[in-house]
């Protein structure tokens, strides 16, 4: 899911805060929650920056694509935010949004190539392998595969929410920024 990760953070955030009217009152906090959702949905792929330095790196074998650090972070944050008296709902909801966004990213990656779900305890890859014609370029094969159909569904579904909340500026800028980064990375690999 090369292109769709950043887009899916918007509907995840919406569904996790839609029944919390107190979170919709303050515009800055609302933008911050959507920012957390978008960044969380791409966060495991920040390890792709290592591919500029280490060639033939399978970033899905790294700890960033494991559920372990995110579970630890979620529970530590949960315990810390539980002690807060002011803005407790905001912080606990922000923690949940980040965790669920990362979790959805990992679940999507499970279906498209697999991940090392329990690193650092094991480097076994869990999930489904991607099957392509090995004689062609990976990204060319990907763009013309059935995987791209599901990416487009994610993108169109998420775009509805992005334009539904036009007053939330991070929704309009950040997913498209990450899409441009994904396109640049694809072009890098095509050359």
Describe the structure.
It is a single chain. The protein has about 190 residues and is an all-alpha fold. The chain has one domain. The protein contains seven helices and no strands. Helix 1 (about 5-15) packs antiparallel against helix 7 (about 170-190) and helix 2 (about 25-40) runs parallel beside helix 4. The longest helix is centred in the middle third of the chain and has 24 residues, at about 90-110.
Protein traits:
single chain; 191 residues
* SSE class: mainly alpha
Q: How many helices in DSSP terms?
A: 7
Number of self-contained structural domains: 1
Fraction of residues in H or I helices = 55-70%
How would you classify the quaternary structure? single chain
Overall pLDDT: 84
Q: How do the helices and strands follow one another from N- to C-terminus?
A: HHHHHHH
Layout of secondary structure:
Layout: H1 5-17, H2 27-42, H3 67-82, H4 88-111, H5 138-143, H6 146-164, H7 169-190
Helix pairs in contact: 1-2, 1-4, 1-6, 1-7, 2-4, 2-7, 3-4
Give a quick precis of the structure.
The protein is mainly alpha-helical and 191 residues long. Helices cover 61% and strands 0% of the residues.
